[in-house]
Specification:
The chain is 35% helix and 15% strand. Residues 307-318 have low confidence and may be disordered. α7 (248-259) links the parallel β7 and β8. It contains nine helices and eight strands. α3 crosses α4 (160-171). The chain is globular, with a radius of gyration of 22 Å. An eight-stranded mixed beta sheet has the order 1-2-4-3-5-6-7-8, with helices on both faces. With 318 residues, it is α/β, with parallel strands linked by helices. This is Peptidase S9 prolyl oligopeptidase catalytic domain-containing protein. InterPro entries: AB_hydrolase_fold, Peptidase_S9_cat. Residues 298-318 are annotated as: Disordered. It comes from Hibiscus sabdariffa (roselle).
Amino acid sequence: MVSYVNIVLYGIGGMLVAGLALLVAFQEKLVYIPVLPGLTKSYPITPARLRLIYEDVWLRSSDGVRLHSWFIKLFPDCRGPTIMFFQENAGNIAHRLEMVRVMLQRLQCNVFMLSYRGYGASDGYPSQHGIINDAQAALDHLCQRTDIDTDRIVVFGRSLGGAVGAALTKNNSDKVATLILENTFTSILDMAGVLFPLLKWFIGGPGTKGPKILNFLVRSPWRTIDVIGQVKQPVLFLSGLQDEMVPPFQMQMLYAKAAARNRQCQFVEFPTGMHMDTWLVEGDQYWKTMKQFLEQHVPKKKENKPSQNGHGNSSFPK
């Protein structure tokens, strides 16, 4: 006769197996959330609503997926830095337009906003491999433009966007000038244990305890902690200490990993910043930090001043 204890154990085991099966089957829906509850996939507003100068840019990723983006300029012939803005995992680029509006004015820059595959007006379904390809397509497009200074391309990413941006920057040391990470996680493996505490014994990064026997099941691990140590360009880390999603110590771990090999790293903490609102609640200090970083690492090119004979500094054959 089966004992009561065995029945309980079988029941718990069954629930764990069922839970893991659901996790494996629907993990993309946990990592990527293109549609916020109660909203639609489409953009609620466009940059025109905020009276921003912009163009719709349509791209093709390397696997043929059609992508949509907005290229927003401070003014038509702006030659300031061009910031590639990579968003978090939920919602679409329209939900970040208010921040971008402020970013344009505070940093005197252009902003390129990419809709990941499956987000906004872009086709396809999100995945780590696919989104990395999407980011590369966006960067390749910018590098071919003649209306910007391609030596001043800056990558900015928050949360998932930081993981995307770190991978892109690492893969393009000759095209990306600097990287800015805000409230970014060390890996999805580590975040699994944060969001679902029972999983931390089975899924996790190098610094976590437990056998981690289920890591192989995670299709989008986003191991930023491994990528950031290979970034050669200057990196600015912006950490909101009240982040309710990504534990701030994960940003500290990313900085430590990067700074061990890269002396051009800067780490700045914002005491009242949460996951999404650090730019808003920290206001002047936030934008001042970013502006000083850009002025140091992507300075404006000095224009050649005409000499007394009416010529510039060009050399002429003798």
